[in-house]
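Anyone up for a design puzzle?
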């Protein structure tokens, strides 16, 4: 009889880890999309006749809907079942990928990208909640979070490499069409491996007013941020959009304070571990998104790397990140709790950015790029796991999707704002004129990138200092025991 119980337990454990692979594969599709498209933009522009001004909508349409629907997607998962919403998100993303890959005109591509963003938002919003509910045993949960963290943190680098291979070897259409077999496989495996939600004890209702105001507010904020560099940060358009977003967020908070069944119970925001970890997420993603984008530009425009060389240059950091995320981070968190590893990882990332801030115009890979890359890989591999655990600490299973949506929104908004601000700072410091020589251009670009890396290092350092504010008991509880 004991043998039968052991076999059943072993089968259940294998099923959970297979389910983890399915969820992470779905998330990887969405995460890759943020960078794989960037590599193909010149080809898309030449093929479909985009102008410089309209081409940005191939990226912005996705970011707009993805950032806007994260909170709503997470809450819908809590109300109607996370497996159901995960599969709906995968289906939307896959169908939209087919439409993107088959596009032969500008408007269909942009519309399909917007639908892709909605699907990606739903997938990312419920994925973390699915993992929290699949893995309730502390050591297994820490390992699962490490795998999930690695997928999220390294997906951008993989996207650059894969985008270069597909665009160069086939055509830009294949950066979207490659999602079709993956999406279909994830759908089939989700039915077989992910647990179905139990029927709710009472009829559930969505807070429509709250959902509408927060979704529109987030979309307006993303639109203002991604267009800030082009329109100007003090332009009438940018300021009006930001004020409208802030006003709608204020209305949303008023609605949530008064409605009987709020979309987002405000007590979640009063939890110190959740509030601090989301603030850290905003700062850290601001630093990391901008570093990834600007370091790729540094290698291409200053050092003369090809797109393929840029992707390969990220490989050592990704390997170290994988080693830390998949093996070391879980053991460190289980032994020391969340606060210490989080602070150490963020401090390592800050030091890596400091090294990039001194990278010279004639820098070499081994001396000037690799050390900072390894420190950032180490920092991301160690810190991402405890940050996710802190953001989800003490949350009931019925609100885990919402908590997942909140932390993903923090990452999305922080990354979008950080990239816009630091890219703007780099451009302002560069200050090129039309008559600049090639060598003068490289020097000026490098000065701009160095300045932006320095500001990013300050963001990461402030995030590390905030990590020290996390209460020890809460961080130990989050790492050593599941939410009840």
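Challenge accepted. My sequence:
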């Amino acid at each position: 009889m004991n043998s039968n119980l052991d076999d059943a337990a072993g089968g259940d454990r294998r099923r959970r880890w297979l389910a983890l692979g399915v969820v992470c594969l779905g998330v990887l599709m969405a995460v890759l999309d943020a960078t794989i498209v960037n590599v193909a933009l010149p080809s898309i522009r030449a093929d479909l006749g985009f102008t410089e001004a309209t081409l940005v909508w191939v990226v912005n349409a996705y970011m707009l809907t993805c950032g806007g629907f994260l909170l709503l997607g997470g809450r819908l998962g809590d109300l109607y079942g996370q497996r159901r919403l995960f599969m709906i998100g995968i289906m939307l993303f896959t169908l939209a990928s087919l439409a993107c890959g088959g596009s032969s005109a500008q408007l269909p591509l942009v519309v399909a990208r917007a639908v892709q963003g909605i699907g990606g938002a739903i997938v990312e919003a419920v994925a973390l909640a699915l993992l929290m509910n699949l893995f309730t045993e502390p050591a297994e949960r820490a390992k699962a979070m490490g795998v999930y963290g690695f997928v999220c943190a390294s997906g951008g680098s993989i996207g650059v490499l894969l985008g270069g291979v597909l665009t160069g070897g086939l055509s830009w259409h294949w950066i979207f069409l490659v999602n079709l077999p993956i999406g279909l496989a994830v759908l089939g495996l989700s039915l077989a491996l992910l647990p179905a939600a139990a029927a709710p004890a009472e009829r559930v209702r969505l807070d429509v007013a709250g959902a509408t105001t927060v979704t529109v507010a987030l979309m307006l904020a993303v639109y203002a941020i991604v267009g800030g560099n082009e329109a100007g940060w003090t332009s009438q358009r940018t300021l009006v959009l930001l004020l409208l977003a802030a006003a709608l967020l204020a209305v949303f908070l008023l609605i949530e304070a008064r409605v009987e069944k709020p979309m987002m119970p405000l007590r979640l925001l009063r939890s110190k571990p959740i509030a601090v970890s989301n603030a850290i997420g905003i700062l850290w993603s601001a630093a990391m998104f901008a570093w990834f984008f600007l370091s790729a530009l540094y290698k291409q425009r200053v050092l003369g790397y090809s797109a393929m060389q840029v992707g390969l240059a990220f490989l050592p950091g990704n390997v170290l990140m994988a080693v830390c995320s998949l093996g070391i981070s879980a053991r460190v968190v289980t032994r020391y709790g969340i606060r210490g590893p989080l602070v150490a990882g963020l401090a390592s990332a800050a030091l890596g950015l400091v090294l990039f801030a001194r990278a010279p115009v004639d820098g070499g890979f081994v001396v000037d790029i690799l050390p900072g890359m390894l420190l950032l890989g180490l920092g991301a591999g160690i810190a991402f796991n405890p940050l996710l655990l802190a953001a989800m600490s003490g949350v009931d299973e019925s609100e885990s999707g919402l908590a997942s949506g909140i932390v993903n929104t923090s990452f999305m908004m922080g990354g979008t704002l950080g990239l816009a601000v630091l890219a703007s700072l780099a451009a302002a410091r560069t200050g090129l004129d039309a008559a600049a020589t090639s060598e003068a251009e490289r020097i000026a670009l490098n000065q701009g990138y160095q300045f932006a890396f320095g500001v990013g290092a300050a963001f990461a350092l402030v995030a590390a200092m905030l990590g020290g504010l996390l209460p020890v008991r809460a961080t130990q509880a989050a790492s050593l025991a599941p939410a009840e």
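A detail worth pointing out: Residues 303 and 362 are 7 Å apart (CA to CA).
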